[in-house]
């Protein structure tokens, strides 16, 4: 009998305890035939064979591959998946009870189901609703694609969604392995080009657990280049679309420029002095100012609008304070 769903879990330096927490949440799903495909992106530091016998309600496959990034790991998972539907789960996150049952109920004749999710950070647990969840309007594919470009909509997230595996494989919609940032938005955007109908629910289907071991506790000297490469790829994705005007890609850029400010220029671990940060700040402005000018600023939250305004007016000291506050929040 065919499984109801394949769940692909890429694992990179995730502890056995955290991975087992994730698997337990999958194992707790009710009355579902679930195929779990674990792809270790680099050899784990613990025994993996026991995982298959410890979760007997699940059909668990696992592969260990040389470290090549999350996109490669997910593509390996897709190549092994055999179910009608597929979902992606990060190893340090969890599924709420009845998540998959909720997805199956709303999916019906759709090829994409989208749900609400919990954002967990420390003791905070906030329920985030997807765009259109409380609306009776028909969600069109171009509407959904446009809103991938906007901040905080949840449209571009990978993991609060269920996908048709046939649509992915028949149309060869795989992850771009040159991307290590925003690869999820790129995948979702391209997947939407082969979708006929979307179903949306305001019921929670995922628990996103903010990892304190984030970009603020380390420094990636290639972070800015990785972000800008992802932005260029999205520009290519939407270039053939007549339904998305330039202000949307400018908004997408602007959101990611804020990430560069926080995680790169004002990253407390980069070891830069004030002069170096100031020069990088000005260089980023000259490189991206046209995107800032033409973005949909009203689509941003008030804190993000203040950050954009500060950057636009070259208020270096204020931008540094804003980034410091943000780093404190997420660290």
Main attributes of the structure:
Spore Coat Polysaccharide Biosynthesis Protein SpsA, Chain A, Nucleotide-diphossugar_trans, alpha/beta, 2 domains, Glyco_trans_2-like, eight-stranded mixed β-sheet, 331 residues
What do these coordinates show?
The structure is a single chain. The protein has helices at 16-27, 50-54, 70-80, 99-107, 141-148, 165-170, 183-192, 223-238, 246-265, 274-294, 302-312, 316-330, and strands spanning 5-11, 34-41, 58-65, 85-88, 112-121, 124-128, 161-164, 198-209. It is of the alpha/beta class. The longest helix has 21 residues, at 274-294. It starts with a strand and ends with a helix. This is Glycosyltransferase family 2. It comes from Bifidobacterium pseudolongum subsp. globosum. One of its GO terms (molecular function) is glycosyltransferase activity. Keywords: Glycosyltransferase, Transferase.
